[in-house]
Amino acid sequence: MKIAVLKEQAAGESRVAATPETVKKFIALGAELAVEAGAGVSASYADADYAAAGASLGDRAATLAGADIILGVQGPDAASLAGAAPGAWLAASLNPFGAGENGGRARVDGYAAAGIEALAMEFMPRITRAQSMDILSSQSNLAGYKSVLDAAAEYGRAFPMMMTAAGTVSAARVFVMGVGVAGLQAIATARRLGAQVSATDVRSATKEQILSLGAKPVFVENVAGIEGEGSGGYAGEMSPEYQAAQAELVSSHIAKQDIVITTALIPGRPAPRLISERQVASMRPGSVIVDLAVEAGGNVEGAVAGEVVTVNGVKIVGHRNVAGRLAADASALFSRNLFNFLSAFWDKETGKPLLDDEIGDAIRLTKGGKVVNARLTA
Ligand code: NAD
């Protein structure tokens, strides 16, 4: 069983899908590991450390030659996987609903045509036994933390209240919209920095979590369609009445905030628009908004992916791949997710992983030359 670890090709991708630690663990399972030279450099993992862990280092062709499993952070296109074994698995974040270079349906069709069995790690079901395999959680947690540091870096004032001989500096007011994994970490990070934090979500279950982190919940009450829980613990789309009430509540709250972090996502759909241009204009100059959903269409009107734009003195931060801005930790957690996944299914007799139906059906996009995932064929 040969496992190939590729150097990421997507622009701006700094992460790597295996670290020397997980290489060692895969070898202990009986696998042979091939790492493309330089794969870990942008995440601070040197070739020599992979070699010391037992991997062979080589160019892309040597890495892929006869590989049974290919690990990636983002899915490379099928043409760049030539040389892998027939029916090889590709385990990565494959972004089949995305557009442009790093995802999309055409890319999935390419895997099918090339006979690759493509496994979309971001489709991992939200069940207890798969928690340790969940790349969305591990990466969102880091993105939530980094979003607050990015906001602090752009903000021309301090976060904590400071009483000095020259006078008092007041605490920053931080509002977190969307309290999933990223939002919870953003709340905790802003609190640690000494900000006054409030937060909102469409799922009422998050109220308790917001309170437990010492922040103030800001919630729409008594409106039809209030319970925003969709399937699998994710949010669903909200009723028009709810959206109107939410917009009104947000308008009055947002004008008093210094920092807003938005994290709201709806799986398989564009991100919900939470902040309008008018609401941005209601904030005082020097305020900062970080849109963590910018690559999914954006929660904030005027946010631009990959840029920090200033509108009426308000900075809107739209960094791409925020987890990748903490490349070493993001890679370590992503790699462990991949190891936890493959090792959980490792069959000692055959020396290969065998997926069960619950997880296999959820994440498998292609097999035997066909697109097989229900989310893509429905
Ligand atoms: P997500 O990234 O899909 O979305 C981020 C947050 O935005 C969610 O809390 C969502 O409710 C919220 N949101 C969506 N539309 C909104 C709107 N219009 N206004 C305000 N907020 C909006 O969410 P996530 O981080 O993946 O977490 C979703 C849930 O799944 C959480 O309860 C989390 O704890 C749970 N979860 C479970 C597992 C597991 O069991 N394996 C793993 C990860 C997360």
Automatic annotation (TrEMBL):
Domain Alanine dehydrogenase/pyridine nucleotide transhydrogenase N-terminal per the UniProt entry, residue ranges: 4-143
Protein name according to UniProt: proton-translocating NAD(P)(+) transhydrogenase
E.C. designation(s): 7.1.1.1
Reactions catalysed according to its record: NAD(+) + NADPH + H(+)(in) = NADH + NADP(+) + H(+)(out)
Entry similarity comment: Belongs to the AlaDH/PNT family.
Cross-referenced InterPro entries: Ala_DH/PNT_CS2 (IPR008143), AlaDH/PNT_N (IPR007886), AlaDH/PNT_NAD(H)-bd (IPR007698), NAD(P)-bd_dom_sf (IPR036291)
Physiological role: The transhydrogenation between NADH and NADP is coupled to respiration and ATP hydrolysis and functions as a proton pump across the membrane.
Superkingdom field: Bacteria
SMART domains: AlaDh_PNT_C, AlaDh_PNT_N
Sorted UniProt keywords: NAD, NADP, Nucleotide-binding, Translocase
Organism expressing this protein natively: Sphingomonas hylomeconis
Pfam families for the chain: AlaDh_PNT_C, AlaDh_PNT_N
Domain Alanine dehydrogenase/pyridine nucleotide transhydrogenase NAD(H)-binding as annotated: residue spans: 152-318
